Amino acid sequence: MRLRALTLTTAVVSSVVVPAAAAPQRTNTEARPLAATEGPIVQMFGWPWDSLAEECRSSLGPSGYAAIQVSPPTEHVQLAGEGYPWYEDYQPVSYELRSRRGDAEQFGNMVSACNAAGVKVYVDVVLNHMSGSGSQGSGPGSGGTEYAKYDYPGTYVDSDFHDCRRDIADYTDKWEVRNCELVGLADLKTESTEVRDTQTAYLNELVDMGVSGFRVDAAKHMAPQDIAAVVDGLHKTPPGATPYVYQEVIADATTSASEYTGHGDATTFAYTDRVAGAFADGSVSGLRNLPDELSLKSEQAVVFVANHDTERSSPTLTYKDGAAYDLANAFAMAFPYGTARVQSGFDFGSNTDAGPPSDSNGFTEPAGCGDGSAWVCTHRHQLVAGMAGFSSAVSGAGVTDWWDNGSNLIAFGRGDAGFVAFNSGGAQGSAREQVTREFTTSLPAGTYCDVMTGRFENGECTGEAVEVSSDGTFTAMVEANSGVALHENAELGS
Protein backbone atom coordinates (compact mmCIF):
# COMPACT_ATOMS: atom_id res chain seq x y z
CA MET A 1 0.00 0.00 0.00
CA ARG A 2 1.36 3.39 -0.97
CA LEU A 3 1.51 5.77 2.01
CA ARG A 4 0.98 9.47 1.59
CA ALA A 5 1.91 12.13 4.12
CA LEU A 6 -0.76 14.77 4.61
CA THR A 7 0.25 18.25 5.66
CA LEU A 8 -2.67 20.23 6.99
CA THR A 9 -1.74 23.77 7.73
CA THR A 10 -61.86 26.49 8.61
CA ALA A 11 -60.60 25.73 11.77
CA VAL A 12 -59.26 22.40 12.79
CA VAL A 13 -58.46 21.78 16.44
CA SER A 14 -56.73 18.69 17.73
CA SER A 15 -55.16 17.47 20.94
CA VAL A 16 -53.74 14.33 19.33
CA VAL A 17 -50.09 13.89 20.14
CA VAL A 18 -47.65 13.38 17.29
CA PRO A 19 -44.60 11.68 18.80
CA ALA A 20 -41.26 13.38 18.59
CA ALA A 21 -38.42 11.68 16.83
CA ALA A 22 -37.12 8.76 18.82
CA ALA A 23 -33.44 8.32 19.42
CA PRO A 24 -31.81 6.47 16.52
CA GLN A 25 -32.25 2.70 16.71
CA ARG A 26 -29.85 1.16 14.24
CA THR A 27 -29.90 -2.62 14.15
CA ASN A 28 -27.94 -3.07 10.93
CA THR A 29 -24.67 -4.67 11.97
CA GLU A 30 -22.90 -2.60 9.34
CA ALA A 31 -24.42 0.63 10.59
CA ARG A 32 -22.24 2.99 12.53
CA PRO A 33 -23.68 4.71 15.64
CA LEU A 34 -24.05 8.44 15.23
CA ALA A 35 -23.44 11.32 17.54
CA ALA A 36 -26.66 13.21 18.09
CA THR A 37 -27.08 16.86 17.23
CA GLU A 38 -28.86 18.59 20.09
CA GLY A 39 -30.25 21.58 18.23
CA PRO A 40 -30.22 23.44 14.95
CA ILE A 41 -27.21 23.83 12.66
CA VAL A 42 -26.33 27.04 10.83
CA GLN A 43 -24.62 26.76 7.47
CA MET A 44 -22.23 29.73 7.58
CA PHE A 45 -21.66 29.64 3.86
CA GLY A 46 -18.42 31.29 2.78
CA TRP A 47 -17.57 32.88 6.14
CA PRO A 48 -13.83 33.27 6.83
CA TRP A 49 -12.37 31.65 9.92
CA ASP A 50 -11.52 34.78 11.93
CA SER A 51 -15.02 36.19 11.44
CA LEU A 52 -16.60 32.88 12.40
CA ALA A 53 -14.65 32.75 15.64
CA GLU A 54 -16.06 36.12 16.64
CA GLU A 55 -19.59 35.24 15.48
CA CYS A 56 -19.58 32.10 17.62
CA ARG A 57 -18.65 34.15 20.66
CA SER A 58 -20.96 37.10 20.06
CA SER A 59 -24.08 35.59 18.48
CA LEU A 60 -24.22 31.90 17.62
CA GLY A 61 -23.32 30.62 21.08
CA PRO A 62 -25.49 33.06 23.05
CA SER A 63 -28.45 32.35 20.73
CA GLY A 64 -28.23 28.63 21.48
CA TYR A 65 -27.34 27.18 18.10
CA ALA A 66 -25.90 23.70 18.48
CA ALA A 67 -23.49 23.70 15.57
CA ILE A 68 -22.27 25.45 12.47
CA GLN A 69 -21.48 23.97 9.08
CA VAL A 70 -18.44 25.64 7.59
CA SER A 71 -17.32 25.74 3.96
CA PRO A 72 -14.60 23.31 2.82
CA PRO A 73 -11.27 24.31 4.43
CA THR A 74 -9.05 22.58 1.89
CA GLU A 75 -6.87 24.21 -0.74
CA HIS A 76 -8.93 24.77 -3.88
CA VAL A 77 -8.70 26.06 -7.44
CA GLN A 78 -8.53 29.78 -8.12
CA LEU A 79 -10.62 30.96 -11.05
CA ALA A 80 -9.64 34.60 -11.47
CA GLY A 81 -11.02 34.72 -15.01
CA GLU A 82 -14.46 33.82 -13.68
CA GLY A 83 -14.33 36.33 -10.81
CA TYR A 84 -13.51 33.77 -8.12
CA PRO A 85 -16.96 32.06 -8.07
CA TRP A 86 -18.41 30.30 -5.05
CA TYR A 87 -17.87 26.86 -6.53
CA GLU A 88 -14.09 27.17 -6.32
CA ASP A 89 -14.39 25.78 -2.81
CA TYR A 90 -15.83 22.51 -4.15
CA GLN A 91 -12.82 21.81 -6.38
CA PRO A 92 -9.98 20.81 -4.03
CA VAL A 93 -6.41 20.45 -5.24
CA SER A 94 -4.93 19.22 -1.95
CA TYR A 95 -6.04 18.53 1.61
CA GLU A 96 -3.91 21.32 3.05
CA LEU A 97 -5.86 23.85 5.10
CA ARG A 98 -5.12 26.85 2.93
CA SER A 99 -8.38 28.14 1.48
CA ARG A 100 -9.53 31.66 0.68
CA ARG A 101 -11.04 31.76 4.18
CA GLY A 102 -7.74 31.35 5.99
CA ASP A 103 -4.94 28.95 6.92
CA ALA A 104 -4.63 26.05 9.35
CA GLU A 105 -3.83 28.24 12.35
CA GLN A 106 -6.84 30.47 11.73
CA PHE A 107 -9.04 27.42 11.19
CA GLY A 108 -7.85 25.84 14.44
CA ASN A 109 -8.42 29.06 16.37
CA MET A 110 -11.95 29.25 14.97
CA VAL A 111 -12.74 25.68 16.00
CA SER A 112 -11.45 26.32 19.51
CA ALA A 113 -13.40 29.58 19.84
CA CYS A 114 -16.65 28.03 18.64
CA ASN A 115 -16.29 24.98 20.87
CA ALA A 116 -15.64 27.27 23.84
CA ALA A 117 -18.85 29.15 22.97
CA GLY A 118 -20.81 25.86 23.00
CA VAL A 119 -21.05 25.63 19.22
CA LYS A 120 -19.87 22.48 17.49
CA VAL A 121 -18.14 22.72 14.13
CA TYR A 122 -19.17 20.51 11.21
CA VAL A 123 -17.01 20.69 8.10
CA ASP A 124 -18.32 20.45 4.56
CA VAL A 125 -16.00 17.88 2.96
CA VAL A 126 -15.50 17.03 -0.71
CA LEU A 127 -14.57 13.35 -1.09
CA ASN A 128 -16.09 12.46 -4.46
CA HIS A 129 -13.76 14.45 -6.65
CA MET A 130 -10.96 16.93 -7.08
CA SER A 131 -10.73 19.79 -9.62
CA GLY A 132 -12.60 20.03 -12.91
CA SER A 133 -11.87 20.45 -16.58
CA GLY A 134 -12.72 24.14 -16.44
CA SER A 135 -9.91 24.86 -13.99
CA GLN A 136 -7.13 23.48 -16.17
CA GLY A 137 -4.45 26.06 -16.73
CA SER A 138 -5.91 28.41 -14.11
CA GLY A 139 -2.70 28.44 -12.10
CA PRO A 140 -1.80 27.20 -8.64
CA GLY A 141 -4.34 26.50 -5.92
CA SER A 142 -5.24 28.86 -3.09
CA GLY A 143 -2.22 27.61 -1.14
CA GLY A 144 0.23 27.73 -4.04
CA THR A 145 0.10 24.05 -5.06
CA GLU A 146 0.70 23.34 -8.74
CA TYR A 147 -1.64 20.66 -10.05
CA ALA A 148 -3.27 19.17 -13.12
CA LYS A 149 -6.49 17.27 -13.50
CA TYR A 150 -5.78 13.70 -12.30
CA ASP A 151 -2.40 14.76 -10.87
CA TYR A 152 -2.26 16.34 -7.42
CA PRO A 153 1.31 16.05 -6.11
CA GLY A 154 1.52 14.55 -2.64
CA THR A 155 -2.15 13.64 -2.61
CA TYR A 156 -3.37 11.72 -5.68
CA VAL A 157 -1.99 10.38 -8.95
CA ASP A 158 -3.73 9.35 -12.18
CA SER A 159 -4.50 5.79 -11.04
CA ASP A 160 -6.51 7.12 -8.10
CA PHE A 161 -9.29 8.24 -10.45
CA HIS A 162 -12.03 6.31 -12.22
CA ASP A 163 -11.52 5.34 -15.86
CA CYS A 164 -14.87 6.79 -16.97
CA ARG A 165 -13.47 10.20 -17.76
CA ARG A 166 -16.56 11.82 -19.21
CA ASP A 167 -19.59 13.57 -17.77
CA ILE A 168 -22.49 11.55 -16.39
CA ALA A 169 -24.94 11.17 -19.27
CA ASP A 170 -27.54 8.79 -17.83
CA TYR A 171 -28.72 9.44 -14.29
CA THR A 172 -30.83 6.27 -14.37
CA ASP A 173 -27.60 4.24 -14.50
CA LYS A 174 -26.35 3.99 -10.93
CA TRP A 175 -22.90 2.78 -11.99
CA GLU A 176 -22.47 5.81 -14.22
CA VAL A 177 -23.67 8.19 -11.50
CA ARG A 178 -21.00 6.83 -9.17
CA ASN A 179 -18.11 6.31 -11.59
CA CYS A 180 -18.30 9.00 -14.25
CA GLU A 181 -17.67 12.68 -13.80
CA LEU A 182 -20.00 15.22 -12.22
CA VAL A 183 -19.75 18.28 -14.50
CA GLY A 184 -16.20 17.49 -15.47
CA LEU A 185 -14.80 16.98 -11.96
CA ALA A 186 -12.05 14.38 -11.61
CA ASP A 187 -13.89 11.43 -10.03
CA LEU A 188 -11.94 9.67 -7.29
CA LYS A 189 -11.74 5.89 -7.10
CA THR A 190 -13.27 5.78 -3.65
CA GLU A 191 -13.34 1.98 -3.65
CA SER A 192 -9.54 2.11 -3.48
CA THR A 193 -7.97 1.46 -0.09
CA GLU A 194 -5.32 4.06 -0.81
CA VAL A 195 -7.89 6.75 -1.58
CA ARG A 196 -9.94 5.83 1.47
CA ASP A 197 -6.92 5.92 3.75
CA THR A 198 -5.92 9.33 2.44
CA GLN A 199 -9.41 10.70 3.04
CA THR A 200 -9.72 9.19 6.52
CA ALA A 201 -6.37 10.73 7.44
CA TYR A 202 -7.59 14.15 6.30
CA LEU A 203 -10.83 13.88 8.28
CA ASN A 204 -8.96 12.70 11.36
CA GLU A 205 -6.68 15.73 11.23
CA LEU A 206 -9.84 17.83 11.48
CA VAL A 207 -11.31 15.74 14.30
CA ASP A 208 -8.05 16.07 16.22
CA MET A 209 -8.35 19.85 15.86
CA GLY A 210 -11.76 19.75 17.56
CA VAL A 211 -14.13 19.30 14.62
CA SER A 212 -17.27 17.40 15.68
CA GLY A 213 -18.67 16.16 12.38
CA PHE A 214 -18.94 16.36 8.63
CA ARG A 215 -21.34 17.13 5.83
CA VAL A 216 -20.35 14.93 2.87
CA ASP A 217 -20.78 16.76 -0.41
CA ALA A 218 -22.10 14.90 -3.49
CA ALA A 219 -22.55 11.66 -1.53
CA LYS A 220 -24.94 10.35 -4.17
CA HIS A 221 -21.99 10.09 -6.53
CA MET A 222 -20.14 7.65 -4.25
CA ALA A 223 -21.10 4.11 -3.29
CA PRO A 224 -22.48 4.00 0.28
CA GLN A 225 -19.91 1.40 1.30
CA ASP A 226 -17.10 3.68 0.20
CA ILE A 227 -18.26 6.49 2.48
CA ALA A 228 -18.81 3.98 5.29
CA ALA A 229 -15.24 2.74 4.94
CA VAL A 230 -13.88 6.28 5.26
CA VAL A 231 -15.96 7.33 8.27
CA ASP A 232 -15.51 4.02 10.09
CA GLY A 233 -11.89 4.98 10.64
CA LEU A 234 -12.63 8.31 12.28
CA HIS A 235 -11.21 9.19 15.66
CA LYS A 236 -13.50 9.97 18.56
CA THR A 237 -14.29 13.57 19.43
CA PRO A 238 -13.91 14.73 23.05
CA PRO A 239 -15.18 13.30 25.31
CA GLY A 240 -15.15 10.06 23.28
CA ALA A 241 -18.11 10.77 21.01
CA THR A 242 -18.53 9.57 17.45
CA PRO A 243 -18.32 12.37 14.88
CA TYR A 244 -21.68 13.32 13.43
CA VAL A 245 -21.92 12.56 9.70
CA TYR A 246 -24.63 13.75 7.32
CA GLN A 247 -24.63 13.42 3.57
CA GLU A 248 -25.89 15.40 0.60
CA VAL A 249 -28.13 12.96 -1.27
CA ILE A 250 -30.41 14.42 -3.95
CA ALA A 251 -32.72 11.43 -4.18
CA ASP A 252 -34.38 10.32 -7.42
CA ALA A 253 -35.83 7.15 -8.93
CA THR A 254 -32.35 5.63 -9.13
CA THR A 255 -30.84 6.66 -5.81
CA SER A 256 -32.63 6.82 -2.46
CA ALA A 257 -31.35 8.67 0.58
CA SER A 258 -32.05 5.61 2.74
CA GLU A 259 -29.20 3.79 0.99
CA TYR A 260 -26.84 6.06 2.91
CA THR A 261 -28.30 6.05 6.41
CA GLY A 262 -26.36 3.04 7.71
CA HIS A 263 -23.34 5.25 8.40
CA GLY A 264 -24.77 8.76 8.62
CA ASP A 265 -27.80 10.96 8.25
CA ALA A 266 -28.91 12.39 4.92
CA THR A 267 -30.39 15.56 3.53
CA THR A 268 -33.96 15.42 2.27
CA PHE A 269 -34.69 17.81 -0.57
CA ALA A 270 -38.34 16.69 -0.61
CA TYR A 271 -38.68 18.52 2.72
CA THR A 272 -37.23 21.66 1.17
CA ASP A 273 -39.66 21.55 -1.72
CA ARG A 274 -42.65 20.97 0.56
CA VAL A 275 -41.92 23.49 3.31
CA ALA A 276 -40.49 26.25 1.13
CA GLY A 277 -43.45 25.88 -1.21
CA ALA A 278 -45.97 26.05 1.63
CA PHE A 279 -44.54 29.25 3.11
CA ALA A 280 -44.07 30.82 -0.31
CA ASP A 281 -47.76 30.18 -1.11
CA GLY A 282 -48.97 31.03 2.38
CA SER A 283 -50.81 27.69 2.64
CA VAL A 284 -49.22 25.95 5.59
CA SER A 285 -52.06 24.01 7.22
CA GLY A 286 -51.15 20.82 5.38
CA LEU A 287 -47.75 20.66 7.06
CA ARG A 288 -49.29 18.84 10.00
CA ASN A 289 -48.83 15.56 8.15
CA LEU A 290 -45.39 16.37 6.84
CA PRO A 291 -43.60 13.30 8.29
CA ASP A 292 -46.01 10.99 6.45
CA GLU A 293 -45.02 12.58 3.14
CA LEU A 294 -41.29 11.98 3.51
CA SER A 295 -39.34 8.77 3.06
CA LEU A 296 -36.65 9.26 5.69
CA LYS A 297 -37.25 8.72 9.38
CA SER A 298 -36.97 11.90 11.39
CA GLU A 299 -33.83 10.76 13.18
CA GLN A 300 -32.10 10.21 9.84
CA ALA A 301 -32.90 13.52 8.16
CA VAL A 302 -31.19 16.90 7.96
CA VAL A 303 -33.72 19.48 6.76
CA PHE A 304 -33.51 23.01 5.42
CA VAL A 305 -35.57 25.68 3.68
CA ALA A 306 -32.69 26.60 1.37
CA ASN A 307 -29.02 25.83 0.97
CA HIS A 308 -26.28 27.33 -1.16
CA ASP A 309 -27.42 25.33 -4.20
CA THR A 310 -31.20 25.72 -4.00
CA GLU A 311 -31.08 29.47 -3.43
CA ARG A 312 -29.25 29.75 -6.73
CA SER A 313 -30.68 26.95 -8.87
CA SER A 314 -34.26 26.41 -7.64
CA PRO A 315 -35.19 29.46 -5.56
CA THR A 316 -38.67 28.58 -4.24
CA LEU A 317 -37.86 30.55 -1.11
CA THR A 318 -34.59 32.33 -0.27
CA TYR A 319 -33.20 35.18 1.78
CA LYS A 320 -34.53 37.52 -0.93
CA ASP A 321 -38.09 36.70 0.26
CA GLY A 322 -37.47 38.33 3.65
CA ALA A 323 -39.88 37.49 6.47
CA ALA A 324 -41.52 34.58 4.63
CA TYR A 325 -38.13 32.91 4.44
CA ASP A 326 -37.34 33.61 8.08
CA LEU A 327 -40.73 32.22 9.15
CA ALA A 328 -40.15 29.01 7.22
CA ASN A 329 -36.81 28.58 9.00
CA ALA A 330 -38.56 29.17 12.31
CA PHE A 331 -41.02 26.41 11.46
CA ALA A 332 -38.18 24.02 10.64
CA MET A 333 -36.77 24.56 14.12
CA ALA A 334 -40.19 24.27 15.80
CA PHE A 335 -41.60 21.16 14.13
CA PRO A 336 -40.21 17.79 15.28
CA TYR A 337 -38.92 16.36 12.04
CA GLY A 338 -35.25 16.06 11.25
CA THR A 339 -32.32 18.19 12.32
CA ALA A 340 -32.91 21.74 11.11
CA ARG A 341 -30.19 23.63 9.29
CA VAL A 342 -30.39 27.39 8.62
CA GLN A 343 -28.56 28.99 5.72
CA SER A 344 -26.55 32.17 6.36
CA GLY A 345 -24.45 33.28 3.43
CA PHE A 346 -23.99 36.40 1.36
CA ASP A 347 -25.98 38.50 -1.08
CA PHE A 348 -25.12 37.40 -4.61
CA GLY A 349 -27.66 39.67 -6.33
CA SER A 350 -28.45 38.46 -9.84
CA ASN A 351 -25.09 36.70 -10.29
CA THR A 352 -25.67 33.16 -9.08
CA ASP A 353 -21.99 32.30 -9.63
CA ALA A 354 -20.70 35.13 -7.45
CA GLY A 355 -18.31 34.24 -4.70
CA PRO A 356 -18.21 35.84 -1.25
CA PRO A 357 -16.97 39.43 -0.85
CA SER A 358 -13.27 39.17 -1.66
CA ASP A 359 -10.11 41.15 -2.28
CA SER A 360 -8.41 41.46 -5.65
CA ASN A 361 -6.70 38.08 -5.18
CA GLY A 362 -9.91 36.22 -4.44
CA PHE A 363 -9.40 35.89 -0.69
CA THR A 364 -12.54 36.41 1.41
CA GLU A 365 -12.94 39.69 3.22
CA PRO A 366 -14.07 39.78 6.87
CA ALA A 367 -17.73 38.92 7.34
CA GLY A 368 -20.12 40.90 9.48
CA CYS A 369 -23.76 41.67 10.12
CA GLY A 370 -23.73 45.47 10.24
CA ASP A 371 -25.90 47.80 8.19
CA GLY A 372 -25.00 47.69 4.52
CA SER A 373 -23.08 44.45 4.82
CA ALA A 374 -23.09 42.07 1.85
CA TRP A 375 -23.37 39.16 4.28
CA VAL A 376 -26.87 37.78 4.88
CA CYS A 377 -27.07 37.01 8.59
CA THR A 378 -30.26 34.96 8.68
CA HIS A 379 -29.14 33.36 11.92
CA ARG A 380 -29.38 36.75 13.65
CA HIS A 381 -32.90 37.66 12.44
CA GLN A 382 -35.16 37.51 15.49
CA LEU A 383 -37.77 35.22 13.91
CA VAL A 384 -34.96 32.73 13.43
CA ALA A 385 -32.56 33.35 16.29
CA GLY A 386 -35.25 33.05 18.95
CA MET A 387 -36.08 29.56 17.75
CA ALA A 388 -32.65 28.13 18.51
CA GLY A 389 -33.39 28.21 22.23
CA PHE A 390 -36.95 27.04 21.59
CA SER A 391 -35.61 24.00 19.73
CA SER A 392 -33.42 23.01 22.65
CA ALA A 393 -36.17 23.58 25.22
CA VAL A 394 -38.68 21.30 23.47
CA SER A 395 -36.28 18.55 22.43
CA GLY A 396 -37.93 15.12 22.64
CA ALA A 397 -41.49 16.47 22.95
CA GLY A 398 -44.12 15.58 20.36
CA VAL A 399 -46.73 17.80 18.74
CA THR A 400 -49.79 18.59 20.87
CA ASP A 401 -52.73 21.02 20.65
CA TRP A 402 -52.56 21.41 16.89
CA TRP A 403 -54.83 24.09 15.40
CA ASP A 404 -55.15 25.49 11.91
CA ASN A 405 -57.63 27.51 9.86
CA GLY A 406 -57.24 25.31 6.80
CA SER A 407 -54.97 27.83 5.12
CA ASN A 408 -52.37 30.29 6.37
CA LEU A 409 -52.62 29.95 10.15
CA ILE A 410 -51.25 27.08 12.22
CA ALA A 411 -50.37 26.62 15.87
CA PHE A 412 -49.09 23.70 17.87
CA GLY A 413 -47.43 22.80 21.13
CA ARG A 414 -44.45 20.64 21.94
CA GLY A 415 -45.83 18.86 24.97
CA ASP A 416 -45.84 21.18 27.97
CA ALA A 417 -42.45 22.64 27.05
CA GLY A 418 -43.36 25.06 24.27
CA PHE A 419 -45.98 26.43 21.92
CA VAL A 420 -45.81 28.23 18.56
CA ALA A 421 -48.19 29.96 16.17
CA PHE A 422 -47.45 30.93 12.56
CA ASN A 423 -49.24 33.36 10.24
CA SER A 424 -47.95 32.91 6.69
CA GLY A 425 -50.72 35.11 5.28
CA GLY A 426 -48.30 37.75 4.06
CA ALA A 427 -46.33 35.37 1.91
CA GLN A 428 -45.42 36.47 -1.61
CA GLY A 429 -47.23 39.82 -1.38
CA SER A 430 -50.54 38.60 0.03
CA ALA A 431 -52.76 41.29 1.54
CA ARG A 432 -53.79 39.16 4.52
CA GLU A 433 -53.16 40.92 7.80
CA GLN A 434 -52.67 40.28 11.46
CA VAL A 435 -54.91 37.90 13.40
CA THR A 436 -55.87 38.01 17.07
CA ARG A 437 -57.25 34.87 18.70
CA GLU A 438 -57.18 32.67 21.76
CA PHE A 439 -54.85 29.68 21.64
CA THR A 440 -55.06 26.54 23.75
CA THR A 441 -51.77 25.10 25.00
CA SER A 442 -50.41 22.56 27.47
CA LEU A 443 -48.04 25.12 28.99
CA PRO A 444 -48.11 25.74 32.73
CA ALA A 445 -49.60 29.05 33.81
CA GLY A 446 -47.11 31.88 33.68
CA THR A 447 -45.76 34.85 31.79
CA TYR A 448 -43.52 33.97 28.87
CA CYS A 449 -41.27 35.88 26.54
CA ASP A 450 -42.30 35.63 22.91
CA VAL A 451 -38.90 34.73 21.48
CA MET A 452 -39.99 35.51 17.93
CA THR A 453 -40.31 39.18 18.85
CA GLY A 454 -37.42 39.62 21.25
CA ARG A 455 -34.56 38.07 23.19
CA PHE A 456 -34.87 36.48 26.62
CA GLU A 457 -31.80 37.50 28.59
CA ASN A 458 -31.10 37.46 32.30
CA GLY A 459 -34.75 36.85 33.08
CA GLU A 460 -35.93 39.79 30.99
CA CYS A 461 -37.62 39.99 27.59
CA THR A 462 -36.87 42.56 24.90
CA GLY A 463 -40.01 41.50 22.99
CA GLU A 464 -43.65 40.84 23.82
CA ALA A 465 -44.64 39.18 27.10
CA VAL A 466 -47.49 36.66 26.87
CA GLU A 467 -49.65 35.61 29.82
CA VAL A 468 -50.75 31.95 29.85
CA SER A 469 -53.72 31.35 32.17
CA SER A 470 -54.29 28.43 34.49
CA ASP A 471 -56.30 26.60 31.82
CA GLY A 472 -53.40 26.88 29.36
CA THR A 473 -54.95 29.50 27.13
CA PHE A 474 -53.55 32.81 25.99
CA THR A 475 -54.66 35.52 23.57
CA ALA A 476 -52.21 37.07 21.15
CA MET A 477 -52.03 39.04 17.96
CA VAL A 478 -50.04 37.34 15.22
CA GLU A 479 -48.77 39.57 12.45
CA ALA A 480 -48.67 38.42 8.84
CA ASN A 481 -45.41 36.65 8.09
CA SER A 482 -44.70 36.38 11.77
CA GLY A 483 -45.51 34.21 14.74
CA VAL A 484 -45.48 33.64 18.48
CA ALA A 485 -43.12 31.26 20.24
CA LEU A 486 -43.17 30.47 23.96
CA HIS A 487 -41.09 27.93 25.82
CA GLU A 488 -40.35 26.87 29.37
CA ASN A 489 -36.81 28.26 29.40
CA ALA A 490 -38.10 31.76 28.58
CA GLU A 491 -40.59 32.19 31.42
CA LEU A 492 -40.40 35.60 33.06
CA GLY A 493 -39.74 35.55 36.76
CA SER A 494 -38.47 31.98 36.69
Q: Could you describe the largest sheet, including whether it forms a barrel?
A: 8 strands, parallel, barrel
CATH class of the largest domain: Alpha Beta
Q: What structural class should be given to the helix and strand makeup?
A: alpha/beta
- Estimate what percentage of residues fall within beta strands: 15-25%
Family: Belongs to the glycosyl hydrolase 13 family.
Catalytic activity: Endohydrolysis of (1->4)-alpha-D-glucosidic linkages in polysaccharides containing three or more (1->4)-alpha-linked D-glucose units
Keywords: Calcium, Carbohydrate metabolism, Glycosidase, Hydrolase, Metal-binding, Signal
EC number: 3.2.1.1
Structure explained in plain terms:
By secondary structure, the protein is an alpha/beta fold. The chain folds into 2 domains: 23-393, TIM Barrel; 399-490, Golgi alpha-mannosidase II (Immunoglobulin-like, Sandwich). 21% of the residues lie in helices and 18% in strands. The protein contains 10 helices and 21 strands. It has helices at 49-63, 104-116, 174-179, 193-208, 224-231, 269-281, 290-293, 310-313, 323-334, 382-393, and strands spanning 12-13, 41-44, 67-70, 120-125, 129-132, 185-187, 213-216, 244-247, 265-267, 301-303, 339-344, 399-404, 409-414, 418-423, 435-440, 446-449, 456-457, 460-461, 465-468, 473-478, 482-487. Strands 2-3-4-7-8-9-10-11 form an 8-stranded parallel barrel, surrounded by 4 helices. Strands 1-12-13-14-21 form a 5-stranded antiparallel sheet, with helices on one face. The longest helix is centred in the middle third of the chain and has 16 residues, at 193-208. The radius of gyration is 23 Å and the shape is globular. The termini are far apart. 52% of the residues are buried.
